[in-house]
Amino acid sequence: MHPDAQIVTDVRHWTDRLFSFRVTRPKSLRFRSGEFVMLGLVGDNGRPLLRAYSIASPAWDEELEFYSIKVPDGPLTSRLQHIKVGDQVIVKPKPTGTLVLDALLPGKRCYLIATGTGIAPFASLLREPEMYERFDTVILTHTTRDVAELAYGADLIERVKNDPLVGEECEGKLLYYPTTTREESPKMGRITTLLQNGDVARDLGVPPLGPDDRVMICGSMALNLDIKAICEEAGLVEGSNSMPNTFVLEKAFVG
Ligand code: A2P
């Protein structure tokens, strides 16, 4: 057994492109909700094949959850997608990342802007009680190509609402804004467009993005850069662990 091996306790396939899984938690692992770790399998050459994965469960959870794309010819995910309960997965107990509450200054509203598997770090943060202590309103936007790819987020919102720790705290504070770009759904469009044309503010009954807002961004490189520009236009400044400010971003890993 690899010294960093953990045991798979649950696997769920959401679409033919997406799955989530839970593993036992390394005894030595301490992390902040929103951080990522290196995760993988032992490769054919006997050496670990690792990729960065955001932890999708909160810091207080006794297990770790991850949400992953399945890349057919991806060296890791082509194999990882076949894991079953009882299998071993390597988790390096060295968490890091910028999508943490410590990197943001206090504010009124906090936007969590995700595309695709970029929702993973926010799945962790939405079950973190501090999220609702720090902000009056928490807005999760999740944009995917088609409706089926919204399922993990929709299920997450239900889990958050029924969570013994944050279920009550999030009441009246948590707003969910799912959109699709390539299949008909109640709200269609790229989140960049919907922020800029005023739809998000109108639909949610909040003021347009401004200095009172805080933003966390997690998607493709292009999405991150486009939302970063929108944040900067709204007067927000990128923060980090050492220099907290009004928005933070991180690339969604794997795929
Ligand atoms: P689109 O369908 O218009 O490309 P992916 O599955 O490729 O990771 O994309 C996830 C979602 O992110 C898709 O709905 C996609 O929209 C959207 N997206 C990708 N790049 C950007 C961007 N630069 N700005 C806004 N939305 C984006």
From TrEMBL:
<dbReference type="Pfam" id="PF00175">
    <property type="entry name" value="NAD_binding_1"/>
</dbReference>
<keyword id="KW-0274">FAD</keyword>
<dbReference type="InterPro" id="IPR001709">
    <property type="entry name" value="Flavoprot_Pyr_Nucl_cyt_Rdtase"/>
</dbReference>
<dbReference type="InterPro" id="IPR001433">
    <property type="entry name" value="OxRdtase_FAD/NAD-bd"/>
</dbReference>
<dbReference type="InterPro" id="IPR051930">
    <property type="entry name" value="FNR_type-1"/>
</dbReference>
<dbReference type="InterPro" id="IPR017927">
    <property type="entry name" value="FAD-bd_FR_type"/>
</dbReference>
<dbReference type="InterPro" id="IPR017938">
    <property type="entry name" value="Riboflavin_synthase-like_b-brl"/>
</dbReference>
<dbReference type="InterPro" id="IPR039261">
    <property type="entry name" value="FNR_nucleotide-bd"/>
</dbReference>
<dbReference type="GO" id="GO:0004324">
    <property type="term" value="F:ferredoxin-NADP+ reductase activity"/>
</dbReference>
<dbReference type="Pfam" id="PF00970">
    <property type="entry name" value="FAD_binding_6"/>
</dbReference>
<keyword id="KW-0521">NADP</keyword>
<keyword id="KW-0560">Oxidoreductase</keyword>
<keyword id="KW-0285">Flavoprotein</keyword>
<keyword id="KW-0547">Nucleotide-binding</keyword>
<dbReference type="InterPro" id="IPR008333">
    <property type="entry name" value="Cbr1-like_FAD-bd_dom"/>
</dbReference>
<comment type="similarity">
    <text>Belongs to the ferredoxin--NADP reductase type 1 family.</text>
</comment>
<dbReference type="InterPro" id="IPR033892">
    <property type="entry name" value="FNR_bac"/>
</dbReference>
<feature type="domain" description="FAD-binding FR-type">
    <location>
        <begin position="1"/>
        <end position="102"/>
    </location>
</feature>
<protein>
    <recommendedName>
        <fullName>ferredoxin--NADP(+) reductase</fullName>
        <ecNumber>1.18.1.2</ecNumber>
    </recommendedName>
</protein>
